[in-house]
Amino acid sequence: MKALITGASSGIGRDIAHVLGSMGCELILVARREERMEELKSKLPVQTQIICADLSSERECFSLYEQVRDEQIDILVNNAGFGVFGAFDKTDLTEELKLIDTNIRAVHILTKLFLKDFCARDSGYILNVSSASAFAPGPLMAAYYASKAYVLHLTLAIWKELQHQHSRVSISVLCPGPVDTEFNRKADVTFAPPSKPSYQIANYAVRQMLAHKMLIVPGVSMKLAKFSARLLPERAILAVSYHLQHRRQPKQTAFKEGPIRTS
Ligand SMILES: NC(=O)c1ccc[n+]([C@@H]2O[C@H](COP(=O)([O-])OP(=O)(O)OC[C@H]3O[C@@H](n4cnc5c(N)ncnc54)[C@H](OP(=O)(O)O)[C@@H]3O)[C@@H](O)[C@H]2O)c1
After folding, report:
1. CATH homologous superfamily, domain 2-246
2. Cα(140)–Cα(246) distance, rounded to whole angstroms?
3. Residues annotated as part of the active site
4. pTM of the predicted structure, to 2 decimals
């Protein structure tokens, strides 16, 4: 088996590489920080290739696919992503457009290109990394939450199409709650709820993906969060969501709250 993992230089992606590597799977690691991937490669017990790519660039997404299309890849893990914290009228537009390019467009492009190949040979696994953020809107992290909802719904819709085609191609979406990675530092936030170790999430995700699980939600509390998001009225969900986000204050830049609109 051979797997391509995006966002493999740290966090969940790096640990998915460890898990798949320990199963004897050959790896292609993709991210921007080459030295991090070289360090990871030196610890992996399997044949590993490194490709440096900025997936916020559409051109680099297509170029990545061209570089590996003849490699007979069995597993695609679309994991690269990041968050931007702050009120929507204050956050940086350029950063958010980059977020949309990385979290949505790259996932969309790579899923489509690899899925076509996987369908043609009627085999392969795709694991798209969304988030528990996908279950509800996220005031103060609006673009990030919306981007993860896109990944969740895109993946579930494709899963249904594949089922109707009696395809043996497997597609799964991972929706974890807070995980201990570099994510918080990059988004400049501090999560209020305790974070799970990323190896634990990666290990669970890989095993569930190989078991053809459609929706992977690690932990009882996140399963409950998903269930609650379906039951509660939107205003209640938004109130809870705002409260949780507000506790994730940026570490240095104080977040200035505007007047709260009640209608
Ligand atoms: N941590 C959490 O609490 C949490 C919870 C739910 C879901 N998630 C999701 O899990 C995924 C992995 O995040 P993480 O928590 O492991 O965070 P992380 O440690 O910051 O890892 C993010 C990875 O994405 C890569 N990446 C970011 N922008 C990229 C770009 N433009 N091109 C190529 N690679 C890029 C980074 O590599 P380079 O910087 O080297 O390019 C890095 O390897 C993300 O999709 C995130 O939304 C995280």
Report:
1. NAD(P)-binding Rossmann-like Domain (3.40.50.720)
2. 7
3. 144
4. 0.94
